[in-house]
Amino acid sequence: MAFHRLRSPANHPRNYKMTHYGWSTCPVPIRTQVKTLSERLQNMLGIELVSIFLHGSLAMGCFNPERSDLDLLIITAQGLSVTAKRAIMELLLQLSNAPRPIEISFLVLPNIHPFRHPLPFDLHYSEDWRKKTSEELADGSWRDWNKHERYDYDLAAHITITRRRGLILYGKPAIEVLPTVPGEDYARAIIGDYWDARDSREQYPVYFVLNACRVYAYLKGGHIFSKDEGGSYGLDALPATFSGLIQHALEDYRGEGQARPYAAPELATFASFMDQHVHS
């Protein structure tokens, strides 16, 4: 479950300048969607719920209402029953994409202390899982959800970002609940995502370019950046030959300017440069 790819906005007028938002300034439908999810989970989980955290672009002030997903981490006191998981998944199928996609992971407090890489997760949902989840709810295979423990290499990155820049929506603060992630494990997680994004760079060029910039920023200076911040850093820190490509990606991410294609050779040259600085 890598950092989710940027989704192409439907019917988006590309000459319209998109404003980015944080949690305190986001449009009412976004706030309502997140608050509804938080309140419903509080009601469903009761005393088993420890914390609800918001991370990602909405927490870091660069949420694009035409592109961005909503990223959340849920911490529970113990593992969820399969019936509780079924109810939660039905809720997520209802609330995700109304209006924005939700990516959410449920972690069990005793299972994330002490930290190990990769960490186990109790439940996960993103729009990439919609079809599979719907099929399992329909054919009864949801009853097997608790038979195997599952792990996610990206949790090292999600937890690091949540501890540094996440927002608490309910419960205990991140510093009390989430483990400290060793820097080398965070680096391993984001480097792994770099290579995944590299392989799909022509399909998701905006994600590849901006994510590569933020990976570079961490490896060179220890910065924990959003994609937008990573791109801005790249304009200053990377060779000027890549400025046009990075600016292109930033404009697309921000919803500025006119849509225009990315040149495969330019992406390949950028990837070759980054390969020299990103080591697995």
TrEMBL record:
This is DUF4111 domain-containing protein. SUPFAM superfamilies: Nucleotidyltransferase. The keyword Membrane does not apply. Residues 176-275 form the Adenylyltransferase AadA C-terminal domain. Residues 35-102 form the Polymerase nucleotidyl transferase domain. Keywords: Transferase. The keyword Transmembrane does not apply. Transmembrane segments: none annotated. Pfam families: AadA_C, NTP_transf_2. It comes from Ktedonosporobacter rubrisoli. One of its GO terms (molecular function) is nucleotidyltransferase activity. InterPro entries: AadA_C (IPR025184), NT_sf (IPR043519), Polymerase_NTP_transf_dom (IPR002934).
